[in-house]
Amino acid sequence: MTYVVTDNCIKCKYMDCVEVCPVDCFYEGENMLVIHPDECIDCGVCEPECPADAIKPDTDGGLDKWLQVNAEYADKWPNIATKKDAPADAKQFDGEEGKFEKYFSPEPGGGD
Ligand code: SF4
Ligand code: SF4
């Protein structure tokens, strides 16, 4: 199994998760992060740290799309292990439905 980052990370990107991951397996896109499924050791410490409740174990079910997104973009985006400031308007998008369809960007973020 692995943990995956899901819809509510998009445009929130608070980054509390990256500080606690013992194996630094988060990767940064322009407006969300993903977890590398082959690097995640399933420790679960990041899940409660996410203020947007966007991190889920893939065993939750119904997360196939997100597993695919995490796997694909972890290979394309740069690694991130140090917390940066969240976007100024992050709160405004917290909890909005269907963010992937509306806002997902395949562009990479800056990484560390
Ligand atoms: S803490 Fe949650 S919302 Fe923030 S970057 Fe990590 S997964 Fe995304
Ligand atoms: S479950 Fe552990 S290893 Fe996997 S992303 Fe979260 S903190 Fe990192």
From TrEMBL:
<keyword id="KW-0813">Transport</keyword>
<keyword id="KW-0411">Iron-sulfur</keyword>
<keyword id="KW-0249">Electron transport</keyword>
<keyword id="KW-0677">Repeat</keyword>
<keyword id="KW-0408">Iron</keyword>
<keyword id="KW-0004">4Fe-4S</keyword>
<feature type="domain" description="4Fe-4S ferredoxin-type">
    <location>
        <begin position="1"/>
        <end position="30"/>
    </location>
</feature>
<dbReference type="InterPro" id="IPR017896">
    <property type="entry name" value="4Fe4S_Fe-S-bd"/>
</dbReference>
<protein>
    <recommendedName>
        <fullName>Ferredoxin</fullName>
    </recommendedName>
</protein>
<comment type="function">
    <text>Ferredoxins are iron-sulfur proteins that transfer electrons in a wide variety of metabolic reactions.</text>
</comment>
<dbReference type="Pfam" id="PF11953">
    <property type="entry name" value="DUF3470"/>
</dbReference>
<dbReference type="InterPro" id="IPR022569">
    <property type="entry name" value="Fd_C"/>
</dbReference>
<dbReference type="InterPro" id="IPR050294">
    <property type="entry name" value="RnfB_subfamily"/>
</dbReference>
<feature type="domain" description="4Fe-4S ferredoxin-type">
    <location>
        <begin position="31"/>
        <end position="60"/>
    </location>
</feature>
<keyword id="KW-0003">3Fe-4S</keyword>
<dbReference type="InterPro" id="IPR054829">
    <property type="entry name" value="FdxA"/>
</dbReference>
<keyword id="KW-0479">Metal-binding</keyword>
<dbReference type="Pfam" id="PF00037">
    <property type="entry name" value="Fer4"/>
</dbReference>
<dbReference type="InterPro" id="IPR000813">
    <property type="entry name" value="7Fe_ferredoxin"/>
</dbReference>
<dbReference type="InterPro" id="IPR017900">
    <property type="entry name" value="4Fe4S_Fe_S_CS"/>
</dbReference>
